[in-house]
Amino acid sequence: MHIELLHHAAQVLADIPNPTPSAPPGSGGLMKILGWAAWVVFGLAVLGVMMVAGKMMIDQKAGHGGGQHAQSLAMVLTGCIIASVASGIVGGIVTAAGGMA
User: Which of 16, 29, 30, 69 is buried most deeply by CB count within 10 Å?
Assistant: First the structure.
């Protein structure tokens, strides 16, 4: 009885249509804007890391500690992680939708 129930459930699930996702009309422009935004965000991330490194070098030369720079670096790297996750989500959506170009 259980095997028949599982077999019937498998047939029902196999009969469910699996439509291929497609991008809505006009989504190419949105993807272009998201791409540009990603380039700007990652450019700012690199600039932020370089600025923190420069401040650390200047303060090291002056004999100051680096505690506040470690906090700044942690914030910049946290921003990099968030931007990378967002980029991965958008990339997954584009791939699932068949490359909205």
Answer: 69
Question: Token pair of 1, please?
Answer: 């009885």
Tens of pLDDT, residues 50-101? 888 888 888 776 666 667 778 888 888 898 888 888 888 877 776 666 555 4
What lies within 8 Å, CB to CB, of 77 at 6+ separation is: 49
The single-letter DSSP state of residue 24 is: P
* DSSP 8-state assignment for residue 66: S
Model pTM greater than 0.70?
A: no
Interhelix angle 67-96/27-62, rounded to 10 degrees, is: 160
Count the helices and strands in the chain (H runs, E runs): 3, 0
Residue 32's identity, in one-letter code, is: K
